[in-house]
């Protein structure tokens, strides 16, 4: 048995600055519809979305160490690739109207994982995350990534604190 309830949109009445009554429109139901995020300067791998935004949550797909022209950065250098990956992550979050400090979870995939990789990851991400409140972090060793020479990929989740970026928390990187 399926129960259907009618959807009722309420109109809220308030006062204008001049003291006259006015109606406020109902909330934008379209905010909960998934939106594909395309970030200028961040190459997309064919068949993958860069990110999807639903409401105020951004789901970032695996960001890889490609520069704005699609060229692999730092072949054989985990630190250089990690720096590029986190720069790409920041660009994607900004394209979705957030700031990197909105990141709440990161999964990092490292080819040939060694324990020293965690230090490299933390150093590369430090300039983008909120001091004192870093995102939950998972580092996973993998055998390979989508393209030869890639040593790291990062996916994550960001939760925006509002509909507009919080410039007070944005460290501009």
List the helices and strands and how they pair.
Elements: E1 12-15, E2 21-24, E3 35-37, E4 51-54, E5 57-63, H1 78-95, E6 103-111, H2 116-125, E7 136-142, E8 152-159
Parallel strand pairs: 6-7
Antiparallel strand pairs: 1-2, 3-4, 4-5, 5-8, 6-8
Task: Explain the overall architecture.
The protein has 173 residues and is an alpha+beta fold. It has one domain: RutC-like (60s Ribosomal Protein L30, Chain: A, 2-Layer Sandwich), CATH 3.30.1330. The chain contains two helices and eight strands; from the N terminus they run E-E-E-E-E-H-E-H-E-E. The strands form two sheets. Strands 3-4-5-8-6-7 form a six-stranded mixed β-sheet, covered by helices on one side. Strands 1-2 form a two-stranded antiparallel ribbon. A hairpin with a 5-residue loop joins strand 1 and strand 2. Helix 1 packs parallel to helix 2. It starts with 11 loop residues before the first strand and ends in a 14-residue tail after the last strand. The relative contact order is 0.18. The N terminus is likely disordered.
């Amino acid at each position: 048995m399926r129960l259907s309830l009618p959807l009722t949109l309420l109109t809220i009445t308030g006062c204008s600055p001049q003291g006259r009554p006015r109606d406020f429109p109902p909330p934008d139901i379209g905010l909960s519809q998934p939106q594909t995020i395309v970030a200028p300067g961040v190459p997309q791998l064919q068949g993958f979305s860069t990110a999807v935004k639903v409401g105020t949550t951004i789901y970032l797909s695996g960001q890889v160490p490609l520069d704005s022209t699609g060229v692999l950065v730092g072949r054989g250098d985990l630190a250089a690739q990690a720096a590029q990956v986190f720069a790409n992550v920041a660009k994607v979050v900004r394209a979705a109207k957030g700031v990197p400090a909105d990141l709440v979870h990161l999964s990092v995939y490292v080819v040939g994982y060694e324990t020293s990789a965690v230090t490299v990851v933390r150093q590369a991400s430090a300039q983008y995350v909120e001091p004192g409140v870093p995102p939950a972090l998972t580092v996973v060793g993998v055998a390979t990534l989508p393209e030869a020479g890639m040593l790291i990929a990062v996916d994550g989740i960001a939760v925006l604190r509002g509909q507009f970026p919080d410039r007070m928390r944005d460290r501009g990187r």
